[in-house]
Amino acid sequence: MTDPLLALRPWDAPEVTSWGRLPMNAVDRRAGAHSLDGGWRFQLLSAPHAPVGGAWSTATVPGAWTMQDTDDLPRYLNVRMPFAEFPPRSPAEDNPTGVYEREIDVPAGWAGRRIVLQVGAAESVLLVHVDGRPVGVSKDSHLAAEFELTEFVRPGGRAVLRLTVVKWSDASHLEDQDHWWHGGITRSVLLYATDPLYLADVDVRAGRDGELRVDCRVRDTGGALPAGWYLDGELDGLALAQDTAFDRENAEDERVSAFLGEARLRTRVPEVRPWTAETPELYGLTVRLHRADGTVADTSRHRIGFRDVAVVGRDLLVNGERVYIRGVNRHDFHPLTGRTVTYDDLRADLVLLKRFGFNAIRTAHYPGDPALYDLADELGFYVVDEADIESHDHAHEIADDPRHLNAFVDRVSRMVLRDKNRPSVVIWSLGNESDYGANHDAAAGWVRRHDPSRPLQYEGAAKRGWADPEVASDIACPMYAPLEECVAHALSGKQTKPLIQCEYSHAMGNSNGTLADHWAAIEATPGLQGGFIWEFWDHGILQSVNDGRPVGRGGAGLYDNGVAAPGYRWAYGGDFGEKDHDGAFVADGVVFPDRTPKPVMYEHRELAAPLRLELFRHEGLVVSNHQHFRGLDWLRGTWELVLADGRTLTAAAELPALLPGETAVVPFPLALPPDGGEAWLTLRVTTAEDLAWAPRGTEVCTPQVLLRAGAQAPEAAVREPAATGPAVTRPVEADADGLLVHPLLTVAPTLSLWRAPTDNDELGGMAPRWRAWGLDSLVRKVVSVRREGPSVTVLAEYAGTTGVVRHRQVLTPVEGGVRIDEQAELPAEFDDVARVGTVFETVAGLDLLEWFGQGPWESYPDRSGGAPVGHHALPVDALFTPYLRPQESGGRHGVRHFTLSASDATGLAVALDEPRQVSVTRYRAEDLTAVAHHDELVPRAGCVVHLDAAHRGLGTASCGPDTFPSYLVAPGVHRWSWTLRVL
Ligand code: IPT
């Protein structure tokens, strides 16, 4: 006999969003439930109608089978669907279908109770059978599906539960998000029991005025409700009672039903502590459903927060304050499981985000695990909760196709029904990249009616007109909009909605250039309120290089500090043998696959600093509280006076008591020594006490002001060496080609115009142009080598395929070394090059870099915030940032001078005429461009040193705007000087 669920062919039926599934609700049943997680019998069929009958293996639940021991491997495609069938179709034959089976022992104590199965997430179609009997069907891969099993199981007995998961379906067309395709059950499976009389839903409204309203729905499995039921509850010890006025009104309006109980609890909390992302104050709410005899039939517990959110004019207000949205887009990702994440994983994600100044998360592009919201409520994040709808490849066909209407409303409404009581959720999102059609408006209509307390956003609708009141978006939420367009809109006088980019600053590879410029504009322009960086994760899956398989759960410990252990690598698109794929575009996060922060995180932390430091010449040092809701008492500071001569003086800081937005002048903590040259004052700010997201002493920000410019800057020392010391007459050694001969250099200093293209350089079209110009393989031809006394002047031409750069190097002996004055003249056609500067290589053994300049982390001209000027030191191997696809990396901005030394303190010292971009790595640019993965790099024994007169900004052109014109390297004449001395 054909199974009715298979006969229904739900994978080919867009109208069928579920069958036999219980309605979504906000009653949390996790506590007290029986976990069905663990090993299940498993078979992978080639298609849903293929017979089950092969050998069983074991699969871990939750977990994608694509990350376990099967031949169906992960696959990365961005926009394009992984199969050719047009919506709503999916492949008839080649459709991996996982059959999961296990016994369930139903406690005898559940006799007379209502028994419910909850499947946390399954992609993309779930069929449920118990003992071979059909129970139900569900779609919507990132929300739980519940089924009542009361009629299917016997308390005290054992039953066979089968969950069949069909990978491809009509629903896949709505789940075409830009990440890996997987298959399986990816969130926990639970079994729980309730009384037949139960809380079907609880809807909490808690405003910042302390008003609490709890609306409850009550049902009974038998249908009719028993007489005399009632509700009570408490809020942290404060008793709540059923609102009799509400009951009376219901009765008068004939809304009382025998089958649906409705009641309201209400109170007003005096002196409420409002919830905000800065002050995530939670209250414990307990709602109890009683039978007529007073016994408790059901209980629902919630952690709630009192807060208001509203769009007023063009501002998004939280508790009446226009808050900055320092957001990130977050996917579910784990390098060992693909997308199954534990509570600890989620906690680690959010803790890291807090430590780096983020206060908002967009759940790109589907609802998260309930634990994500528990943590966002507790730690403090503003969440844009996004429904699981992205029909990217067929967006236009689907947005108005009535066959998909059910699915749109189903997905959006289920998310709202589940998450409506979350203080962290401040905005609903209808989904991503799905064009804009009537299906969206239908879903928006449902949301507006069900939850008028929160704004709604949808980028596809906002795109129709940022100020258009008719479209289904209360926020102007573009993606990757050029900053000048955003500013122009805010200044146009036509803005009607808050402008908060749903995606900006694409973090692929070495990226996020101009983030500081964005924030300067946001803070200077009323109407701009922030945005969500794309994205949190680099989705590199840990892969064994030998057999090409994902390592899976056993791989813990096979990576460290962003790098996979030898023999392993971070796989991206194409690495699992996919024919069509989108390569490294899946590695576009602000953290590596093991959550190691990329350097941009430090800049973000500084941009989000809760306090600011400024120097006003006549007033002195000014500290300001840059938060929205709290004082500075949770912070502690230390002053550091950084002097160019190598000294760093410290003093404890007394932070002023400031309300949000207030400023105070503070006395200079340390006397500025009259000598010592360039001087900077840094305020190193840490947490004053243990917080939920950071132990005491965690660094929060390091604002810095310049106290004295470099009166005795290296420039002076470099340019006038003879004036400060005895005349040096020992001639510089250069070979016949005019190349410096030096005992510590293996490759003499020459001109470099090339960097290993970043992802932005490649996808933004710069790198192809550079290659066309021949900048990656300039041919050096000596024009003349002229000796004048102890100096040598070398004229050379560096020929590309289309232009010639004239380069002059004057080598002059100075005390202890040589001064190199350089000039390069770029032809007009080289109007946008990666760098103009010097490259040389050193002997092996110089493994420590000490520098005076910005640091300690990697920084670039358009991404240099949060890297204060100081005396920094790092092993050379720690300077390089291991971006998944090797590219320009490891740069340090604003370097004045540095030494490279061996363990016996011998080595070389370089002083630059002015703060320059410097990089010291084990790789030539061509080493980096020759390979596709970090593990393929072979480090050189010596160092490859770049000193740049000019270095191009990074921008974000892999998806979005390029860097700004001010960060481009102009053609024409560039001059720079430096000295090289032996230590
Ligand atoms: C945008 C997507 O919303 C996001 O999922 C991701 O693909 C991002 O781009 C790029 O990494 S869509 C793009 C067409 C702007």
Detailed description of the structure:
The protein has 983 residues and is mainly β. It folds into 5 domains: 4-194, Galactose-binding domain-like (Jelly Rolls, Sandwich); 208-304, Immunoglobulins (Immunoglobulin-like, Sandwich), CATH 2.60.40; 347-361 and 385-539 and 587-602, Glycosidases (TIM Barrel, Alpha-Beta Barrel); 610-702, Immunoglobulin-like, CATH 2.60.40; 717-963 and 970-982, Distorted Sandwich (Beta-galactosidase, Chain A, domain 5), CATH 2.70.98. The protein is 13% helix and 36% strand. The chain is built from 16 helices and 55 strands. The strands form 11 sheets. Strands 44, 45, 46, 47, 48, 49, 50, 51, 52, 53, 54 and 55 form a 12-stranded antiparallel β-sheet that branches. It has a 7-stranded antiparallel β-sheet with strand order 1-10-9-12-7-3-4, with no helix packed on it. The chain has a 7-stranded antiparallel β-sheet with strand order 15-16-19-18-17-20-21, covered by helices on one side. Helix 3 runs parallel beside helix 4 and helix 6 packs parallel to helix 7 (438-450). The longest helix is centred in the middle third of the chain and has 15 residues, at 405-419. The radius of gyration is 32 Å and the shape is globular. The N and C termini lie far apart (87 Å). The structure holds 1-methylethyl 1-thio-beta-D-galactopyranoside. It catalyses: Hydrolysis of terminal non-reducing beta-D-galactose residues in beta-D-galactosides. This is Beta-galactosidase. Its EC number is 3.2.1.23. Belongs to the glycosyl hydrolase 2 family.
